[in-house]
Amino acid sequence: MDRARSLPSRRLLLKGATLAAIPYALLPDARAGAQTQSVDYPAAEWKPASTSNFTASMRPAAHTLNRVIIHVTQAAYATTLSIFQNPAKKVSAHYVVRSADGHIAQCVRETDIAWHAGNWGYNTRSIGIEHEGWVKQPSYFTDALYEQSARLTAAICAKHGIPADREHIIGHYQVPGTNHTDPGPNWDWDRYIRMVNFIG
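Structure (tokenized):
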């Protein structure tokens, strides 16, 4: 074996030494700006779903977006995020809204197809928003949840040219072939649609 050829070059050593001498404080944080670059809605926090739980796409070029589908998690906020991050679950939504303060997590890019509606045709053409809570416990539908969700839906409708009405903002229970009942009878549709239109 040729020893001279196995050693790193002087230039490579000097380059490494130069980098080692730069104070860490001057180097950019690898995470700096990552959240802003990853989310479609600026007020959201990026909490990505497992890539096993959605379909990569190039919407709206691949599929026209024409609906927002409103869901209720039937689980706590943190539990919902962990379900979406579990590759065995085969489920996701684009966004999750927390009950207590309306905080929003984005789990799937809007260009991609989340697996939320239980109907492939509806999945391909919609944005799914999960809301922390239980259908039979209306106390989870807080003012903060309604307000932040309405802001999100208004932004989605404006961005994708989706009419902000009950024909295009629907409940999971309205998806053909589903056996879900969410968001349920305690969800105030009149209030919600009014808020979406007022904000939009």
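Helices lie at 3-6, 10-21, 34-38, 77-85, 120-124, 143-160, 189-199. The first strand starts at residue 45 and ends at 46.
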